Amino acid sequence: MRRAVCPGSYDPIHNGHLEVIARAAGLFDEVIVAVSTNPAKKYRFTVDERLEMARETLALLKGIVVEPVGEGLLAEYCRQRGVSAIVKGLRSSSDFDYELPMATMNRQLSGVETVFLPAEAHYVHLSSTLIKEVAGLGGSVSDYVPRSVHRRMVAGELAPEQQPRG
pLDDT category, 26, cuts 50, 70, 90? Predict the structure, then answer.
């Protein structure tokens, strides 16, 4: 079985992510959408909410598994899960410059290859950060995120660390 992983924080998952994951599903027997947490980042949604949104959104795609990465190196996660490839979407040359050293390190650590898929032209401007910023300033992001994500963004669901204190 050819198994790949599409790692990311998915905060939130957006249509650019979905497009890359769907293309990866056409290349591999199984694609693990591995939701990660970086302690240095501030999240809009908890890891459980991000997992739930990804599962809801990807439920109809065959061969997709959604799970948390947990702690530790992605290379070790890949080794434990029998993953032969990491799939990353690239929007620009700066994405490539950022991803290449990690791809090389992951290959050296575990033998896992990284497959780069160029983003479709109408998604190259999308990032989770930009979507959160636009939504936070009152702009509509409904064309850029799945319905389940949009519903949560409109409802104003916030991660615990972003809840108002008082």
Answer: very high
Cα-based torsion angle of the residue sequence 135, 146, 78, 2 in order, rounded to the nearest 10 degrees: -150
Of residues 104, 90, 78, 123, the one with CA closest to residue 67: 78
Least confident of 12-16, 86-90, 154-158: 154-158
Neighbours of 69 (CB within 10 A): 20
Kindly tell me if the per-residue pLDDT of 157 is higher than 80. Answer: no
Q: Which of 14, 17, 50, 152 is catalytic?
A: 17
Catalytic residue, from 3, 23, 79, 91: name it: 91
Is 88 considered catalytic here?
Answer: no
Verify whether residue 42 is a known catalytic residue: no
Neighbours of 120 (CB within 10 A): 15
Position 12 confidence tier, pLDDT thresholds 50, 70, 90 = very high
Hey, what are 69's tokens? Answer: 């990465």
